[in-house]
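job 3f2a | input accepted
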Amino acid sequence: MRVYNFSAGPAMLPIEALTAAQSELTDWGGSGMSVLEVTHRGKPFVACAAHAESALRSLLAIPDNYRVLFLQGGASAQFSAVPMNLTASGDKVAYLNTGQWSAKAIAGACAQDLDVAVLADEKATSYTTVPSEGSFAVPADAVYLHYTPNETIGGVEFGYVPDSAGIPLVADMSSTILSRPIDVSRFGVIYAGAQKNMGPSGLCVVIVRDDLLGHSRSTTPGILEYKQMAESDSMLNTPPTFGIYLLGLILDWVAETGGLAAMGERNQAKAQALYAAIDNSQFYANPVALDARSWMNIPFTLADPALDKAFVAQAEAAGLTNLAGHRSVGGMRASIYNAMPMEGVQALIDFMTDFEQHNA
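job 3f2a | predicted structure (360 res):
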């Protein structure tokens, strides 16, 4: 039986893409081999990767002056790769800190002999807020401004795209990419781990503007160097072939279900329904400021934390899995990425109502 998987990642994937992969797992495209076995240098897989890139460009309306890279190491590798590719020793870079993933990106920059300016840090609110629009000044001499649009662990999301005052804006979109339309032209670099809305873990998609290529430090490893990877169509080394293949299937599913506009409407409706259930209860609570609530990751607490283990166990028995909050935060967290249907959200709401009635 398929369950409703509320994991923050690796996350629930669309059944349509999984069954398509299953149907040709042992014989891909009549090759007599699995896609897991074919050479990445052969024409069939080169075409597969080209399809994934084309589909992504179409859905996100990526301008021609941007390159799409399929890299390894997940988004975490980009915490180091971004400054390696965009800065020289001693440069100033700017960051917004809204939680644990922002902090990891900041640490990656601090390890590289840079002047790291943290323009806003939401520590005072225990990272339940984002800085208000216009509340920070971007240094004119900064090489880039980095932010995390959605903090997966804390369930905090920006409701706006920060004004970077003309310098390149860099965004870790691991938890938001493909969840709604975005204007790629507002960014210098977008990077995203695949394991939320795009496929299995290991693959990282990087979208980088052409003018930001070719500025890397000499010590940057080739597999993290944007220009080399762009010139080799992300095949400087053996790429994450299965991740790229599955990404293509998922992008086809997104297009077939109405594209990003329709996806955004569905995701907003799911989030609104779950937040309403939490807000209308005296038993559950969400700690995040109203204007910073994530569509993708919704944390909530129970009135009595002693009931947390019972809630998780009973939910799992009901086919609602991976609801325990991150170990550093506690409570509960429901991640409702693209593949989570409204039926799954409603099943969770119904369970929460029943659990409250029996335990309030």
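job 3f2a | DSSP finds nine helices and 14 strands in the chain.
job 3f2a | closed
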